[in-house]
Amino acid sequence: MFEIFDYEFMRLAFIGGTVVAILAPTIGIFLVPRRYALIGDGLGHIAFGGIGLALFLKFEPTATALAIAILAALGIERLRAAGRLSGDVAIALFLSGGLAIGLLLARLAKRSTDQLWNYLFGSILTLKTEDLWLMIPLALGVLATVFLWRRELLYSTLDEETARASGVAVSKINLLFVLLTAVTIVLSMTIVGLLLISALIVLPVAAALQRARSVRQAYLLALLVSLLSVYLGLIGSYYLDTPPGPTIVLSALGVFGVLSLRR
After folding, report:
1. How many CA atoms within 13 Å lie on the side-chain side of 13?
2. Rounded distance, CA 68 to CA 197, Å?
3. What is the chain's Cα-based Rg?
4. What pLDDT score does 137 carry?
5. Cα 76 to Cα 81: distance, rounded to the nearest angstrom
6. At residue 86, does pLDDT exceed 60?
7. Does the pLDDT of residue 114 top 70, yes or no?
8. What single DSSP character describes residue 36?
9. Exposed e or buried b for every residue in 32-51, given b needs 16+ CB within 10 A?
10. CA angle 174, 177, 179 (to 5 degrees)
C-alpha cells in the first residue's frame, strides 16, 4: 500500500487532502447546527460562476472565484439578516445564477470540458507545490480566526437570540462565518470540486453527531471522520482508478452510514 507515496503527486495529494480534511469540519461544526448546510452548495456554484468569469476575461481562476464567493456570501447574509428572503431561498437564488453564469461564460471562452470537470469535481492529483504554498497559509488563517472567535461563533450558532442579548455582535459574527465558509470552499475546490465540497463539510459533522455527547467530542470525531474519508478516498482512487473527489465523498458517506448504525 505504501508504494503510492513513491509518487510526488500522491504525496502532494495527501498533504492537500489533509489540509482540507481539517478545514472542512472546522467550518461544518458551526454550519450544520445552524441548518445552513446548503450554503456550501450555494457558494460552490457561485464560485464556479467566478471560474467562468475568470476564463472568459483571462483572469486568475482561484483569486476570481474567491472574490466572487466572498461577495456572494456577504450578499446572502445581508438578504437573510434583512428578512427579505429566508436563508435557503437566498442560497437557491445565488446557486442557480452562479452555475448558469459559469457554464455560459466558460462556453463563450471556449474552454474544454475536462477543465470544467476539474473545477466541478476536483483535481487533487494535479496539485503542485506552489498550490500548497497558497493553500496552507490561507487555511491556517481560517483556523486561527475560528479559534480566536470560537466562543462567539458557538454562542451565535446554538442560540442567536441569547447571544445577542449577552452582548455578542451576532451580525458581525455571522458575516465573519460566511466569509470563512467562502474561503474554505474555494480552497477545497481542487480537492473534491465545487459541486462536492458541501458533502465534505457536512458529512463528517453529521456522522460525528450520531455518537458525540458534546460539541468538543463532535468536533474531534468529525476531524477523525474527515481525515479517514480523505485518506480512504485517495487510496481507493489510486487502486481502483476512480476520480478522487467522488471517491472521497463516497468514503465519507460510508463512514456516516457505519456510525449511524444502532449500537
Report:
1. 25
2. 17
3. 18
4. 92
5. 9
6. no
7. no
8. -
9. bbeebbbbbbbbbbbbbbbb
10. 115
Q: Are the beta carbons of 135 and 187 closer than 8 angstroms?
A: yes
CB 122 within 8 A of CB 190: yes
Whose cell is 453564469? That residue is 101
Cβ contact 201:20 at 8 Å: no
CATH number of residue 200's parent domain: 1.10.3470.10
Would you say 188 and 200 are in contact if contact means Cβ atoms under 8 Å apart? yes
Q: What is the pLDDT of residues 5-19, one digit of tens each?
A: 888 989 999 999 999
Number of domains in the chain: 1
Give the domain extent around 143: 2-260
Q: Output the pTM of the full model.
A: 0.88
Residue 166, burial from CB neighbour count under 10 angstroms (0-12, 13-18, 19+):
exposed
- Here the cell at position 258 is 457505519
Distance CA 200, CA 60 (A): 25
Angle formed by the axes of helices 170-192 and 244-260, nearest 10°: 120
Give the separation between CA 31 and CA 66, rounded to whole angstroms. 19
